Amino acid sequence: MYQDELARAGKRLFFIRGTYIYTIIAISTLIAWCTRDVGPFGDVASDCVWFWISLGIASAGALVRVFTSGFAALGTSGRAKVAAEASELNTTGPYSLVRNPLYLGRILNFTGLAMLSGSWVFGAIVFLLAILVYERISVYEEEFLRGKFGAAHTAWAKDVPALFPRFSGWVKPKYPFWWKRMIWREQNKLFLLVTTVFLTWFARLDFDIAAIGETQWTWVHAYAALVVVRFAIGGLKMIGFFKELS
After folding, report:
1. pTM of the model
2. What is the spatial distance between Cα 49 and Cα 152, in angstroms, rounded to a whole number?
3. Which of 43, 97, 138, 155 is the most buried (most CB within 10 A)?
4. What span, in angstroms and rounded, lies between the C-alpha atoms of 105 and 190?
5. DSSP string, 125-193
6. Residues 77-105 pLDDT 10s
């Protein structure tokens, strides 16, 4: 059956989903280096607007994920790489508007990162591929949830769309916002967003340090400080500071 094929494809895609963002960043940087274009238009003002729209879409996706991760129940919406997991069924907060808010966030984030390359073609390709990929992953995960939660899942899924949110029916989150857990879950995605902006900008300078203007060094130093913070958080993760919020 077609649904079974989608689920099997989704399981395979689920297993490698952590690599998608790195591929998009690498290709975006390569396109920026080859074209040196900030946007697909022929004038500076329009390209500047393109950049801010691209950054806005990527940031919106990251914020959707931040909001969702902070309110999701413990033991759900996990970072597991091998199989779906869920200690309970999320149906409140963001999950009352869309069944897969984390995947909606990824679609937006990936599209914005691709648009930062300056290419509308790459942006469109990534948008369409992201929908196809996460449609299949969501089918796989929902088969798991349907098998585990049965009628509760059926009742929830009947009214809540899979990937594109409805604009009514908000239900107050069951749990308070978990700041520590959100940082553990999403800090790397936020770091990669800033990294994409930095790499595509530096690529347009042909990765030439001498081409960096005097005022631009402030942003270079700010990014370097962010790198230090990122690795400091990584160190806290290694010693188990975030372990209980997995």
Report:
1. 0.89
2. 45
3. 138
4. 12
5. HHHHHHHHHHHHHHHHHHHHHHHHHTHHHHHHHHHS-SSS--SS-----SS---HHHHHHHHHHHHHHH
6. 555 555 567 778 999 999 999 999 999 99
- Give the C-alpha separation, 105 to 18, whole Å: 14
The residue written with tokens 């989704």 in the block is: 10
How far apart, in Å, are the Cα atoms of 115 and each of 21, 53, 78, 118, 219? 13, 9, 27, 6, 21
What confidence tier does 236 reach under pLDDT thresholds 50, 70, 90?
low
Q: Which residue has the tokens 């009352």?
A: 96
Total domains in the fold of the chain: 1
pLDDT tens for each residue of 102-117: 999 999 999 999 999 9
Rounded distance between C-alpha atoms, residue 245 and residue 75, angstroms: 8
Enclosing domain of residue 166: 2-245
Query: Can you spell out the DSSP letters for 64-113?
Result: HHHHHHHHSPTTSS---SSS---SS---SGGGGT-S-HHHHHHHHHHHHH
pLDDT of residue 155: 93
- Cβ contact 111:62 at 8 Å: no
With beta carbons less than 8 A apart as the criterion, state whether 68 and 175 touch: no
